[in-house]
Amino acid sequence: MVSKDQPGPLQSMTGYGSAEGEAAGASFRWEMRSVNGRGLDAKMRLPQGAEELEPQLRKKLAPLQRGTVNISLKLTREESDAALVVDEEALAAAAHAIQTVRTAIECDLPRPEAVLSMRGVLAPPTAEKTFPEVLLAALDESFGRAVAALLSSRQAEGAEISAVLKDRLTAMQKLVADVREGTANTRADLTAKLRAQVEEVAPGLVSDDRVAQEVVMLAIKADVSEELDRLSVHLSSFAEQLEKGGAVGRRLEFLSQELMREASTLTVKLPSAELKNLGLDFKEHVDSLREQVLNLA
């Protein structure tokens, strides 16, 4: 089991695991399928008589941490084990009833097959006989193997998702750098653009100081340094969580939401169509990021 101090690899919430075994004249097979879920929700289908195992089996699911897990047990017995048995208490009650009738009226003893056909005399094996300790122990051990197989499946897919996320992060970090570079000369660009517009409309009528004041106001409105700084921080936190591993899905969901919020603000404030396109590219990466993150435990 993975400890809290050692989070372990990332896990996808989807996976499959199985394990087989034989004991006490029975063969069995566990199958487990997990899908996305907000918490850890295990749904078990156990044969009658095996219900006592459920509490200890559920404890073995703790390493999965999140996801909806459907668990089934298919058990096949030898014919002799599945045969009906005589219920001693029911047989004694039947014998007492027969004796009462013979005391009241004179009649012959019933034939054995007639006694066996009386309600309750023949019954399925009791849970103790159906699931002896050796079988319960084998079921418990094989359940652990099935959980390990499921965990391995989920971790393998988690590694694939992690690789995709890291590629996305690299692309997003480059976009942040490109936007930062593109906005570095915003004030100079605004000055030249505004001066050209003023000279076209009213040549010689507006002072350089007035143009400079307008440029400052426009530059303040177009300043995106805070948004870029916050995006860089969120991307770094995202990368740290990926390296940390374990059940980081919820944390990454939150960071994805923060990335989208900052990216939306950034895109609106960017001063040129070229830079806005970079912002839109960033938002597309965030969308892809969120889709992948939703699969993580």
UniProtKB/TrEMBL annotation:
GO molecular function, one term: RNA endonuclease activity
Keywords: Endonuclease, Hydrolase, Nuclease
Family annotation (InterPro entries): YicC-like_C, YicC-like_N, YicC/YloC-like
UniProt cofactor(s): a divalent metal cation
Record domain Endoribonuclease YicC-like C-terminal: where: 183-296
Pfam family, one: YicC-like_N
Top-level taxonomic group: Bacteria
Location of the Endoribonuclease YicC-like N-terminal domain: 10-162
Family of the protein in this entry: Belongs to the YicC/YloC family.
Descriptive protein name: YicC family protein
Upper taxonomic lineage: Bacteria, Pseudomonadati, Pseudomonadota, Alphaproteobacteria, Parvularculales
